[in-house]
Amino acid sequence: MLRKKHYLALGAVTLVTVLLLSLPSRTVSHLKLAIGGLFLPLFGTVNAVRQVPDRAADTLLPRGELLKEIQNLRRESQEFEVCKQQADGVARENDQLRALVGWQQQQPWKLKLASVVLRDPANWWHTIQIDLGKRDGLVENLPVLTSDGLVGRVSSVGLTRSQVVLIEDPRCRVSARVLNPAHDMGVISPGGPMENSLVDLSYLSGNANLKPGQLVVTSGVGGIFPPGIPIGQIADSSQAEFGLYTEARVKLSADLGALDQVWVLLNPQPN
Amino acid sequence: MNVLQTILILAAAFLAVFAEAAFQLPRQFFGAQVDLLPALMIYAALNTNIATVSLLAVLGGLWFDVLSANPLGVSIPPLFAVGFLICTRRDLILRELPFAQVFLGAAASAVVPGLAILLLLTGGQEPLLGWGSLWQWLVMAAGGAVATPIIFAVFGWCQHALGYQPQTEPSFRPDREIRRGKL
């Protein structure tokens, strides 16, 4: 039943596979970005398709509602302006005190907005691709967040696109701190393939006193994520390994299933 | 039609991989993304030659891995294994029957991710697996089962529209001619 051409095809495909799998990671990264460039013309089409429902909704929205929305936004903008002035004053005071004590000066976060263009087609990885790359100043391991909280980190960078490993992927481990009196620290790891909004917080001390609703933020330990970025809230907790340590489930602040735009933190300052 | 059919299959694979990465409707509704490459591979294995099957496995797998966090090339062997197996046994398969298409689509869509995960684990990778993966596996198999007859129908229509039509035999046959005498 097997003919000569079947054996030839089998040999050729095996050879190509072995060659590809044995390439060094740097070459693979370049190759992936080069081949991924083939999909660039399709990105515009996708954006156009995604905008169709928005445009349809725009035409149906009443003018009065839009004006009301503008007024609300103006009011919010004025409130934020006042808050910013106050925050600037506090920051100046903080800088002066740091200078007096001799501590390192803190720099304000430099953020860059990116659009999410693609999501991992495989169900066993949780990554996204964003439309910023080397030419926008991105490098590997930069933190990625939304206004709600932490999203993940940049894992590979191309000229115009980058891959971001989400916080619910096994390759993104984050050192986290619970905002409780004891400031318990643990490591964020993925919850499960179907749990989009829940991750595990493990390696907490055995006597950690956790309550649902307590905030979890990045601890700054590990060298990638600066301290204080919100991750989520404690959903529940339990003892693990016969009480050796405590595990908790954390409900993520950012909705990772509906990411359209994210912020890349260009100057992270971990402790 | 052979070359055109190969080009059409590869173009469909390219668009399918991109659509899987760009549109998240199945993931939002069912919690898993459906992979269309196994269903395409079933069509290619039953209707084209081994060269097209190999090309689809290599290019489709490569495109999938480029947009995914998979190591480059890891999706090629599962796709080719399914295509090769069906291509070598296709004389025994009733490819025109929708039941056969549905069954093969479901089986291929279940086997391909299973083999891919096996390869990933063998290579020391840590893909996100758990009890939820079983549900995702079922969704992928069901998606493949639905997609395969549709792909057969679409490509059948393309072949009908773009390919050469089979020449119909005239009803006249010289051996059946009734020769009549003068009387």
- Please bin the fraction of helical residues of chain A: 25-40%
Overall, the morphology of chain A is globular
What CATH calls the topology of the largest domain in chain A is Thrombin, subunit H
What is the averaged pLDDT score of chain A? 86
Question: Any descriptors?
Answer:
heterodimer; A: 271 residues; alpha+beta; 4 helices; B: mainly alpha; elongated
Give a summary of the structure in a few sentences.
Chain A has four helices and twelve strands. With 271 residues, chain A is of the alpha+beta class.
Describe the structure.
Chain A has helices spanning 4-21, 25-36, 40-60, 63-101; strands spanning 111-119, 127-130, 143-145, 150-157, 162-166, 174-178, 185-190, 198-205, 215-218, 230-240, 245-252, 261-265. Chain A is α+β, with helices and mostly antiparallel strands and 271 residues long. In chain A, strand 3 (143-145) and strand 4 (150-157) form a beta hairpin. With 183 residues, chain B is mostly helical. Chain B contains seven helices and no strands. In chain B, helix 3 runs parallel beside helix 5 (76-88) and helix 5 (76-88) packs antiparallel against helix 6 (98-122). At the A-B interface, helix 1, helix 2 and strand 1 of A face helix 1, helix 4, helix 5, helix 6 and helix 7 of B.
How do the strands and helices of this protein lay out in sequence?
The complex is a heterodimer of chains A (271) and B (183).
Chain A: H1 4-21, H2 25-36, H3 40-60, H4 63-101, E1 111-119, E2 127-130, E3 143-145, E4 150-157, E5 162-166, E6 174-178, E7 185-190, E8 198-205, E9 215-218, E10 230-240, E11 245-252, E12 261-265
Antiparallel strand pairs in A: 1-2, 1-12, 2-5, 3-4, 3-12, 4-5, 6-7, 6-9, 7-8, 8-11, 9-10, 10-11
Chain B: H1 2-22, H2 25-30, H3 37-47, H4 50-67, H5 76-88, H6 98-122, H7 131-162
Helix pairs in contact in B: 1-4, 3-4, 3-5, 3-6, 3-7, 4-5, 5-6, 6-7
